Amino acid sequence: MATYRYRAYTAQGVVTAGTIAAEGIDAAIDALYTAGLTPFETSLSEAGDEVPASAPQKSQPIWRRELVRSNQLGLSELTAFTVEMAALVNSGLPLDVSFRVLAGPGTSPKRSRLATDLLQEILGGAQLSEAMRHRPAIFPQDYVAIVGAGEASGRTGEVLGQIGDMLTKRLEIRNKIRSSLVYPAILLLMSLASVAVIVFVLIPNLSPIFADAGLPLPGILGVLASIPDYWLPLTVCLLGGAALCAMLWYKIRKSASLALKLDRIKSRAPVFGRLLQMREAGLFARSLGTLLDARVPLMTALQIARSLIANRYMNAGYADAIARVPEGVSLNQAFAGTDLLPPAALQLIAVGEQSGQLARMLIRIATTLDGELQRRIEQMVSLLTPVLTLVIGGAVGALIMQVMSAVLSINNLAIQ
Fold first, then answer.
1. Degrees to nearest 5, angle at CA 82 with 150 and 85
2. In three state form, how does the secondary structure of 11-64 look?
């Protein structure tokens, strides 16, 4: 057991220092959190042998270093972190005190470590958006841009609340999609199990009867009967196809021209393209509205909002429309005829430009588009279950009919 020196924040935000005995540096940090402290410096007490808290020990298993001590947050954890942070900041607490509360007892280890890391950078003089920008794997680009706009206008708590609402809606959509896909997934697994029973149990028992009669298995049963004999070539073909698809995908990601063509295909797809267009339009409108509300110049706000568009083909379209604004063209006229924004959104933008409420109108457009996107996704997922049920049920039913036909024909073979 070793002795470690530490410096930590108490629940009241006071810096305290001392020593603690523990089996390792991780155990020391966990003990400090259990005691209601938030450590920001922890090292061995022996002179000249300091081990910073962020450095993993050599004896620590790799799975613990990479998984247990990871600061990566999923969408649900990031949403909870943002909502709690917005509630604390909006309650009037200073930003540093809010992060000390977020890092205190009762918080999940990942969120506690993230809050501690952000707090250290903030105390070092960094802005919140700057500290978040150093963690692109946790905070998306639009998240950081909106927080930066809120800091510029002194409305950090308000924009954090907006981000929390946005992430909550995304989480709701994802959870609804997952819950709606549970039944189709179970149906698919059961159908695959039924096919496996037919191929590896029923067909091997029927094959000798038809072989003795000198007749092939009827219908598709003959094709299925050959699967066990050719499983190795089929497996090689499947693995080769998967490798070829992976290589093609890697080449597309590395080639700007191929990626642009792929994004163009996606944006023009019959159903998916419309959903993608609504998602990008909602993101653009929300980011632009928040930036304008933070008194960011129009052209700067437009360029920042455009940089958040992930689809390269649509991004180029937004760039062409934005390039017309410095020529004296109004925003709604610049996007007219581009199909990037819905006609109703262009009308609201025109009203906002005339009334001087462009930022508010853009946020209203984003809210409307997000709601419409959620409704369409829910409709598609709700239709997916009956369609899959009919398709899988029909395929399995047809296969079972083939098996029943073969079984019934055994009597004819016996008579012959």
1. 80
2. CCCCEEEEEEEECCHHHHHHHHHHCCCEEEEEEECCCCCCCCCCCCCCCCCHHH
Helix (H) or strand (E) holding 9: strand 2-9
Which residues 6+ apart lie within 8 Å of 346 measured at CB?
Answer: 332, 335, 336
Which two tokens mark 140?
């998306």
Rounded-to-integer distance, Cα 254 and Cα 251, Å: 5
d(Cα 416, Cα 414) in Å, to the nearest integer? 5
Distance of CA 79 to the CA centre of its chain: 11
Q: What angle do CA 135, 108, 141 make, to 5 degrees?
A: 25
Q: Residue count of the chain, please give it.
A: 416
Kindly calculate the radius of gyration of the chain based on its CA atoms and give it in whole angstroms.
30
Please give the pLDDT value at position 283.
84
CA distance 144 to 239: 40
| Residue 20 near residue 3 (C-beta atoms within 8 A) | yes
- Mark the ranges of the chain whose per-residue pLDDT is less than 70: 1, 9-15, 40, 45-72, 213, 410-416
Cα separation, 19 vs 45, in Å, equals 8
What is the C-alpha separation between 84 and 161, in angstroms, rounded?
Answer: 9
Query: Whole-structure pTM over 0.85, yes or no?
Result: no
Give the separation between CA 229 and CA 207, rounded to whole angstroms: 13
Domains detected in the chain: 2-68 (3.10.20), 75-179 (1.20.81.30)
Q: What own/partner pairs with CB < 8 Å and gap ≥ 24 does 146-150 have?
A: 146/286, 146/287, 146/290, 146/291, 149/290, 149/291, 149/293, 149/294, 149/296, 149/301, 150/290, 150/294
pLDDT, one tens digit per residue, over 287-311 is: 888 778 777 788 888 888 888 788 8
* Cβ neighbour number for residue 390 with a 10 Å cutoff: 10
Model pLDDT, residue 321:
92
- Helix boundaries (H) for 91-230: 95-102, 109-123, 128-133, 141-153, 156-180, 182-197, 203-212, 221-225
